[in-house]
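OP here, attaching both records as promised.
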Amino acid sequence: MKTHEVFEPGDGRKIAYHNLPARGAGVNAPGVVFLGGFKSDMAGTKAIYLEDWARSTGRAFLRFDYTGHGISSGDFLDGCIGEWAQDAYDAITALTNGPQILVGSSMGGWISLLLARRMPERIAGLIGIAAAPDFTENGMWAGFSDAERAALMRDGRVEQPSEYSDDPYVITRKLIEDGRQQLVLDAPLHLPFPVRLLHGTADADVPMDWTLRLLDHATGPDIRAIFVQRADHRMSTDDDLTLLTETVEEVIRRDAAARPS
């Protein structure tokens, strides 16, 4: 059995994905798309858990790797937020039908918001898991020392230690400069569908203040934040995963209630 398919948008990119078709009552309902984080891939715990949930409920479900991530083509160091958002846009446009509920983890939360701005007619709801909009500017660049900023501009890259790997994070000048063209918290951001923002109080990577800022900045009829005591950035414990699927189901109900009968 194939573990994945490959989608080629036509410009040399090869995007690996797994697409679960809807069945039964799910055929006429919104699908779910998982958008992973920085240097993550579509085989992570949350993506697989959501796919199992979708299979059990008949929902369509799409997970994929951005270019330079997982088993898609490209080098991670050549990528940037705008290009990964384009990967997501192309995948959703080509591989899904009708409205979708976006579930964005960390960087995937930022990409979800970019998609909400670009294709709101295709979005039935949005769930952020430790969403990290504008993190290249408000997290990386803001946290650099003067020496690191000078090295980035001079050498095109700097290295930072990673809590998740023995290899350092390499942050490129392209990532920072492109990120400034993708900011979502510096201009009006209207989200005309149910939005839920999940965040753990023990998250050491994305400050809770970022979720509060997004909650205050965005406008829309149904936006709520849920803070989970002692949950970390991954939010992948059994309780966290149960909360995630419960939240997806709530967004589905809220979307259905808001649609004309």
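Record two, same layout:
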Amino acid sequence: MAVKIDPMAIVDPKAEIEDGVEIGPYSVIEGGVYISSGTRVGPYVNIRRGTRIGKNCIIEAHCVIGASPQHFAYKGEESFVEIGDNVVLREYVTVHKATGLGEKTVIGDNCYIMVGCHVAHNCKIGVGVIMANLVGLAGYVQVGDGAVFGGMAGLHQFVRVGERAMIGGLSKVVKDVPPYLLVDGHPAKIRGLNVVGLKRAGFSAEEREEIKRIYKFIYFSDLSWKDTLEALLEAFPNSKFAERIRDFMISSERGVLRWKPWKE
């Protein structure tokens, strides 16, 4: 299937465009860009040098991908943006390249990023992440697989969001969000398990109950924080969820969100 490039688009001859790609009018594709088969680029899109886009993506009007990072440490070194397969970037999304020689800003497969979202330099977004309109991720944010963001949520630089977590709309997130939880507020606070998200992801009632008991053990133990995390795997032997949650928490540099008393 041939490449379809609108006559009004500007595509550098050094850009690598696979068969089946469509590029709309007034879009600009710089040299050093790679776009994989089946991807559709809408009108007025700007894709900068060092960007690699996977298969069957949809990039809507006025997106800017691979622009220089908004970071004083950036001195023009070669860095990159890498976008996986089946990713949707709706209108006016911006994705900045990384700071640091050879570093990448990464968006995983099957993500859906809605109107006006910003993904800053050095962010790492996992598989199947959904971001509603106008979400802003500051530099070095890491997002686990299947996380969901309500509209206009904002994340501080270096914050991590665990897999299958849900961030409520308009939330201000300044500490790490552990996996499987629902957080909301300004600043964000833990409100409970992301029950709807876990059900949609196929987690059984038994698995959801196990995760709930793990978090009760962590947040309402009489032990110190360090001793609680050390005791967690003894309390929940052979639990993949306990292992994932513990690994997430002990690797936190910004600190993790704490929980208000659980409501039964």
